[in-house]
């Protein structure tokens, strides 16, 4: 039952509020539409809190050597996290549990969950213990141009963030159970609490602990958010956890087969950051500026690409398990169309307002106007690949739902290996700007390869994609971006908040008017499609078409 189904036209305000409240209960089972709506809403909230966190960091610490060390300190914990498929844990474990539950094998699903949650974190704990001991040596290899003070700070932060990643990993595993039951509320709220803890720790302890307070906040947030909240969701879902080291469990074997390719591979999401931080480690402040640019870029990536594909995973897994391949293909390609069209338009807006956007959001305290200018340039360069980053999530999760993680893992690894010398060459040629060009090219090649392989697999063929509408949206995006960029240039951006707001508002009005006119002139069905996607109170026939219940 989705929000659109529970709220009908003509009902009283009280009935509507009760229906929406029911859909927001942690034990409510969602459809793909209501799940996407819930995920989008919580992602917006999370990004708002995340912005407050980043704004505080910019105000308190600026773009300096210590912020470079803070951003870089996440690299080693993230590498270990990805080595045990942490980034895809929700997807792979959800696929395994959904398959067992679709076969009505609740007992085996519960046992497999207990085995996986016992064995895998134990391995991760041992690995992180070694990493904590070897942190100084690892940091010197990964960031060869850091100063001794930067390396010392980076090592201290790494040792705090390692257990935070372990707690996050356990929370991610428990969220897979909740998601397999199509209960999305607690898993989507957990990141909100994590961000709040980081922000609160920085505000309350930043003056005494410095930037180390942020890492302590991340540790506390991982415990209270992903770990504790998902444990509550696990309990209410009817699952229980009992420590079990049965390494012969069939569920563990199935999960290992899915996760092993991810463990032995490198995704472009991780590799791109590693390459950027490695080459930019000698450019004071550039790691921080690149980090902020990617944070801003990934707002629409997460909102449009991640939420749509994440909400679709349980439903796609169920469709594939039941061999309803035509519906599987329709759902994947529908998501590809939606993500492509909207992210193309979003990219054109980001490019047109990049300077006033970065200056208005980030410049305060120790983060100066010159930092805003560089960050805006980096954001504009990265925005050209916005559609590809979003589709990378969509295609990757489609493969996982089809019980194939080897193909995207191998594709990502080969792309990373091939493009590492490209990053180096373009960095030597154009400095940090060259890194951004390499980043755009790498993710584009990765997505095109995944799309071709999914087509060859026969579960999301190119012949059913809505090419004409995607090209139409691209044309509208180009024209609207040019109009918005011209409008931004009319307003003199002099480093004041008033100028930033005026430029954003004026450019956005011009951009939005051009988009509306362009979609109307091209008679794009996207206008009606957007109404269906946002008009959940009225409901639509598409809800029933996409619903898998």
Structure characteristics:
mainly alpha; single chain; disordered C terminus; 24 helices; 81% helix; 549 residues
Model description:
The chain is mainly alpha-helical and 549 residues long. It has a domain at 38-264. Helices cover 81% and strands 0% of the residues. It contains 24 helices and no strands. It has helices at residues 3-6, 13-23, 32-61, 65-73, 75-83, 89-102, 106-133, 135-142, 148-180, 185-209, 212-236, 250-263, 268-280, 286-321, 325-352, 354-362, 369-383, 386-401, 406-430, 432-457, 467-490, 497-521, 526-534, 541-546. Helix 14 packs antiparallel against helix 15 (325-352) and helix 14 runs parallel beside helix 18 (386-401). The longest helix has 36 residues, at 286-321. It starts with a helix and ends with a helix. Residues 1-10 and 536-549 have low confidence and may be disordered.
């Amino acid at each position: 039952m989705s929000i659109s189904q529970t709220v009908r036209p003509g009902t009283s305000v009280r009935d509507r509020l009760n229906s929406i409240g029911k859909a927001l209960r942690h034990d409510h089972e969602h459809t793909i539409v209501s799940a996407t709506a819930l995920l989008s809403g919580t992602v917006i909230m999370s990004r708002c809190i995340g912005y407050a966190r980043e704004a505080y960091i910019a105000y308190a610490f600026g773009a300096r050597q210590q912020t470079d060390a803070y951003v870089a300190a996440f690299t080693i914990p993230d590498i270990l996290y990805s080595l045990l498929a942490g980034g895809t844990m929700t997807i792979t474990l959800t696929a395994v549990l959904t398959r067992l539950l679709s076969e009505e094998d609740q007992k085996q699903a519960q046992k497999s969950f207990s085995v996986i949650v016992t064995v895998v974190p134990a391995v991760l704990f041992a690995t992180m213990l070694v990493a904590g001991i070897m942190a100084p040596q690892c940091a010197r290899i990964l960031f060869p141009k850091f100063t001794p003070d930067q390396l010392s700070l980076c090592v201290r932060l790494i040792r705090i963030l390692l257990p935070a990643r372990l707690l996050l990993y356990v929370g991610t595993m428990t969220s897979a159970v909740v998601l397999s039951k199509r209960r999305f509320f607690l898993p989507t709220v957990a990141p909100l609490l994590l961000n709040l803890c980081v922000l609160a720790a920085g505000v309350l302890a930043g003056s005494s602990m410095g930037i180390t307070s942020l890492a302590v906040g991340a540790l506390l947030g991982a415990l209270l958010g992903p770990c504790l909240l998902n444990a509550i969701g696990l309990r209410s879902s009817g699952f229980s956890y009992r420590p079990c080291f049965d390494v012969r469990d069939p569920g563990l074997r199935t999960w290992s087969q899915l996760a092993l390719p991810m463990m032995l591979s490198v995704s472009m999401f991780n590799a791109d950051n590693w390459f950027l931080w490695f080459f930019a480690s000698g450019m004071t402040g550039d790691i921080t500026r690149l980090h902020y640019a990617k944070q801003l870029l990934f707002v629409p990536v997460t909102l449009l690409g991640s939420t749509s594909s994440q909400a679709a995973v349980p439903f796609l897994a169920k469709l594939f398990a039941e061999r309803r391949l035509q519906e599987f293909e329709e759902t994947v390609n529908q998501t590809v169309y939606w993500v492509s069209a909207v992210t193309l338009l979003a990219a054109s807006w980001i490019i047109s307002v990049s300077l006033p956007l970065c200056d208005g959001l980030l410049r305060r305290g120790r983060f100066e106007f010159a930092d805003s200018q560089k960050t805006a340039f980096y954001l504009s360069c990265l925005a050209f690949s916005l559609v590809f980053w979003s589709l990378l999530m969509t295609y990757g999760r489609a493969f996982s739902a089809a019980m194939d993680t080897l193909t995207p893992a191998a594709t990502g690894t080969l792309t990373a290996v091939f493009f590492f010398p490209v990053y180096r060459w373009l960095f030597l040629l154009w400095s940090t700007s060259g890194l951004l060009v390499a980043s755009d090219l790498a993710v584009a090649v990765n997505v095109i390869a995944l799309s071709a392989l999914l087509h060859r697999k026969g579960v999301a063929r190119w012949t059913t994609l809505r090419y004409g509408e995607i090209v139409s949206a691209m044309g509208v995006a180009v024209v609207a971006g040019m109009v918005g960029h011209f409008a931004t240039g009319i307003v003199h951006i002099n480093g004041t908040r008033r100028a930033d707001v005026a430029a954003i508002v004026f450019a956005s009005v011009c951009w939005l008017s051009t988009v509306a006119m362009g979609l109307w002139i091209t008679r794009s069905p996207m206008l009606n499609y957007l109404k269906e996607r946002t008009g959940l109170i009225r409901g639509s026939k598409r809800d029933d078409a996409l619903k898998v219940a």
